[in-house]
Design a protein that fits this description.
The complex is a heterodimer of chains A (96) and B (480). Chain A has 3 helices and 2 strands; from the N terminus they run αααββ. By secondary structure, chain A is mainly α. Chain A has a domain of 36 residues: Histone, subunit A (Orthogonal Bundle), CATH 1.10.20. A two-stranded antiparallel ribbon of chain A has the order 1-2. The longest helix of chain A has 18 residues. Chain A is flat, with a radius of gyration of 23 Å. The two termini of chain A are 40 Å apart. Chain B has a domain of 243 residues: Amidase signature (AS) enzymes. Chain B is 39% helix and 12% strand. Chain B has an 11-stranded mixed beta sheet. In chain B, α5 packs parallel to α6, α7 packs antiparallel against α16 and α10 packs across α13. The radius of gyration of chain B is 21 Å and the shape is globular. In chain B, 64% of the residues are buried. Classes of the chains: A mainly alpha (96), B alpha/beta (480). At the A-B interface, α1, α2 and α3 of A face α10, α11, α12, α13 and α14 of B.
Chain lengths: 96, 480
Amino acid sequence: MSHTIDVAYVAELARLELTPEEKLTFQQQLETIVKYVEKIGELDVSGIEPTLHGQALANVFREDVVVPSLDREGFLANAPERNGFEFKLPKIVEDA
Amino acid sequence: MNMDVSTLTVCQAADGLRKRDFSSVELTRAVLAEIEKKDAGLNAYLSVDAEGALRQAAAADGARSEGRDGALLGVPVAVKDLINVEGQPCTCASKQLVGYVSPYDATVSARLRKEGAVFAGRTNMDEFAMGSSTEGSAFKVTRNPHDLTRVPGGSSGGSAAAVAGGEAVAALGTDTGGSIRQPASFCGCVGLKPSYGRVSRYGVTAYASSLDQVGPITKNVEDAAVLLQALAGCDPRDGTTLDVPVPDYRAALMGGLKGLRIGLPKEYYIDGADPEVTACVRRAVAGFAAAGAEIVEVSLPHTEYAIAVYYILATAEASANLARFDGVRYGHRTARPESVFDLYAKSRAEGLGTEVKRRIILGTYVLSSGYYDAYYGRAQKVRTLVRQDFVKAFGSCDVLLTPVAPTPAYRIGEACDDPLKMYLGDIFTVPANLAGLCGLSVPCGKTASGLPVGLQILGPPFGEGVILRAAYAYEQEVRS
């Protein structure tokens, strides 16, 4: 398996802007780490079910009844910018 | 106050409060004074809420005068800075969350609040719980109270240093790959990771949602039982908590060692660990045997794959969990974004630290198209194999005894340049998270230079009673 990670592409997926230095350092470090984690390729996992959860729980439901949630003010209190009960975001005019 | 608050346990505090030796206000003032005196040297705390704490303490004293009692009424508990406590900061030791004030209590905080505990301060940690030394904090480097040139461990290093350094009666930490047990080991205190699903994660900033658990870091085993009692239980707000009855953990302490079957997984006793660590652990094992426990050798053959599985699954989950830190609704927002993408990418670039970025990139990579099956999909299957190893082992023993870490606390700055080397230090702790087991670290000795060594006791899921029993018996009967 190729160990070359397209760090720039992955950073884009992660919505993370990296400096050129970070891209280079991460490239080297992550390829070392990926080479290490690839040891799981040694094992025969045919017929093994994946562990999807911490414990085997499924379909944990509650009654569909409205219960009090957090007060709206609480949700907005840490907003970088707000306009009444709205989160305010920069007006960004994108190229068509 | 006559009592030395730096060595005071939760049970001694409750006793002293009950006997009116001191009030909660006096106790809280004493803890705040210790923080004032010591924290410049230890850096265990990120913030202290003296006003809020004294108000809570006064309320606890008032409740007590009206006839109320409880194991935690009026007792200060330090909280790792990623567990939401209403009205207090919750920085996760990240620049991304400077100025964030929690608008709600995590369930664990609400439970402690209901018991009358006092929230005096918030402890330092590796940023977003990603790390094993607390050096990953964006704000300060916490020092090991036993040797100020060394790390306290991580990611709950602040909590462990505060307890070990006498700046807290007890503390909460979180454990995703060892982050309660390893700092407890490095700092010479007790740290317990409950089984997955035993304690609610609601209101606890998520690192890896299928691995995270909140647990106590304390001066002794009994205190860990007391705190666990308050924290444990099914929570309708956390669909991953199980509806399993909560036993009386303090009663469970008293079981003794006779007839206890102790498994030693041979893969945890290979060469490569620090010889002084090995000696301390082996001495502990011998002590258990001499006290009447039955020792059985077991095998966990997939141990060597656990780190690889962990760093694929945990980083993948982290990449999803940290996507919310985008500068939109809370946290740091970049000043002049030129596009929506910019808003996210620059806010995160400016707010998140290097280790966090590294893990997000790795996690995103293993989930990306073309790599998902080979890494994430396969790791989930190997996780099953790791889990099955433990199920089989617990067929022939009640608890497993192992070292917590291959080394004692290392020097600040020593591990920084080689992330993989740091990751490999988690070898003995991550399997318990992968398998959803409970586990604790109890001090079992010191190296010649005075560095603490912890003994790890692992139990099957919802086996907190038996690991507490083994740990208490060890602490009271075996350890000299």
